[in-house]
Amino acid sequence: MPRPEPEREMVRRAAPFGPPAALLALLLGAVAGGWGVGWSAAIGVAIVTVNFVANGLSLARAARVSLTALSAVALGGFVVRMGIIVAIMFWLDRFAFFSPLAFGLAVVPATLLLLGFEMKLLAGGLGQELHVTPGEAGRR
Fold first, then answer.
1. 20 to 30 A from 124, CA-CA: which of 8, 29, 31, 70?
2. Is the pTM of this model over 0.70?
3. Residue 42: what pLDDT?
């Protein structure tokens, strides 16, 4: 019997909203402060989307290995991905068009909206078929 993979399902359901959200951020940013602000906001939303996809797929893979691997990827992966995002922001700051403020003002609401969408999916029953029995956890 195939194991359920709610992480992959969450990615499948949420990722399609990334490109339209980035386009909306581009247009709103461009109206608010010009194309540089728009591109900075769009890049921020795109990075939130890519981060979510990387997180979901890495957790799905780790869940197939063991609970220890899942825990390590959940914590260690977060630290690594945040480091990468900060490095990308510092790299982008070298370009004249880039606005760290617009980037941040796009990243924060995009992340909050994505977390809200995740909670909605989980409240709707996604992942409810997952049950780890003590015997199964001990064998891994």
1. 70
2. yes
3. 98
